[in-house]
Amino acid sequence: MYKLLTPGPLTTTESVKQAMMIDHCTWDDDYKSITRTIRKKLLELAHVDEQEYTSVLMQGSGTFGIESVLTSTVGTKEKLLIAANGAYGLRMADIAGHAGLHWELYLEENDRIPNAGKVVQILQQNPDITHVAMVHGETTSGILNDARAVGQAVKDNGRTFILDAMSTFGGIDIPMSDWGIDFLVSSANKCIQGVPGFSFILARKDSLQAAKGKARSLSLDLYAQWEAMEKDGKWRFTSPTHTVLAFAEALNELEREGGIPARNKRYRDSNRLLISKMKEMGMRPYIEEAHQGPIITAFYYPENREFSFQEMYTYIKKRGYAIYPGKVTEADTFRIGNIGEIYREDMIKLCEIIKDFLEESKHA
Ligand SMILES: *Cc1c(COP(=O)(O)O)cnc(C)c1O
To answer: Tell me, which GO biological process terms does this entry list (predicted)?
Structure first.
């Protein structure tokens, strides 16, 4: 048994795991009411109401949710701008390419955030662009993009804004309306601390209504999924029942912890503690402090010494934790996440293990 210091799936509580010990029938009223409660609570977390906004649950991992939004909302005569600074931003471009959407890329370096002014400039030069998509927390590097500035810029210019808030929603407060977000996508196994199996989409109702009949896929048709779910809470196709039960419990636990502000504080405290202890050991974060998010941190390999990530990974895993390899291409990094059922004590223990590893491998 080891704890996961990864950006999801992550270490969940015993009670979340316990919630999955029931086999539920999908058309049963009790089950449908769980779906309705989840949809309602997600809107509350985003500070929006059912008059103007709605939520849709979608089978599959986070990527399925992103693919659902992009391929259901960008029509054949419309065009998508993707602001990317990492692998998840580029994945949106990959999805757009596969689906044959009209799209354009605004690419930033992995350690720089997309600039709202630059987005405005692109929109003004390209009146044919109708939608803009960006990642909030780029899990590739741990950088936190300025979704608020970009969202407001997109709104001021009358376009539709799609935010991949996969690794941030529930861990960072996102007032959806204030930030000008039309579609927000996240999934069950990230900061809400559930298990994998579905993604969810929070949407402005008028923006979602505009998507009717535009979908390029049957199973990922966002509008059709919503229409079916609106009737009485039954999902369109077989839903991941155990995951849904676990998620309902995870939402209760988020509430009991003190909601997003309390969870954000726990993540932030763990993240700061981790970074300061790693710095003491000579390990530098890849992202500068001003843009470092509280979810996951990429560290450079230590300099001026032999270092094997695989050896360190195995050493740490034997002692109770799984860390994550790097994903940025220009530098040798590894990543440590601090979301899930993870506390300050875990950061302290982990850093002691890393210290021992560095000591022992120096003498080896
Ligand atoms: C986890 C994640 C996704 C979705 O990845 P899946 O493997 O499909 O769950 C998308 N974007 C970001 C930023 C993520 O962290």
So the answer is: organic phosphonate catabolic process
